[in-house]
Predict the 3D structure of the following.
Amino acid sequence: MLLGSEFFIFLGVGFLAQLVDGALGMAYGVVSSTVLLSFGVPPAAASASVHAAEMFTTAASATSHVRNHNVNWKLFWRLAPAGIVGGVLGTYVLTAIDGAMLRPFVTVYLGLLGVYILYRALRARGPYHEPKTKIVLPLGVAGGFVDAAGGGGWGPIVTSSLIGSGGAPRYVVGTVNTVEFFVTTAVSVAFITALLTGHWSDAEGIDQHLWSVAGLVVGGIVAAPLAGFVVRILPAKRLMLLVGTLVVALAGYQTWELLFKVG
């Protein structure tokens, strides 16, 4: 593939993935990793590439959400440290074993959670409440771990779980996206450390995908400001419906992919 065409393909992927991710709190990592894997990039290299791109896109997304007052700072200060710890642990697991082992469990979890979110959106009538610390801390660790080990998953796990537990969709999406910048930065630093210390054998050839990463960065940065505005103006019930639908779709796609590979 020509380098120029590779850049523009991933620019489009990055734009669409970040638009959905910034508005619904998930999908950038999952979509970008899936596309990279389909191009033959090894799982660890795909995760590292996506997280390198996300350092830029999540910074733009976080800025947009802060400007649009979509961030619950109390939730932010509880979620960020837990997510960073989980992300660093997940990085070292991925550089040592195959992170794909986690996918079947995450897929089942997401499918059930997506159905529950849709149920709440259609039947429940609020009010929304502050997520409890006993839920936030383990959820942050799990989300960061799966995100690093699986090349994506922070948004689907953390956003869906917090909304499913009764959190206000606008502030959950804005806060989770803002925390993601710090989780992504920690994961990227951990990948670099593993590379420099010789603990990451799959890093060979990662420089061949620099144009893909550049496309993901540019597309994501362009889309990020639009997403923060969408979250601010979209009604909570509609946002919950969209999140639930996306979670079920992602779970369905991952189930199909797992069954197809097995078959």
Q: What stands out?
A: The radius of gyration is 17 Å. The longest helix spans residues 169-196. The CA atoms of residues 57 and 221 lie 5 Å apart.
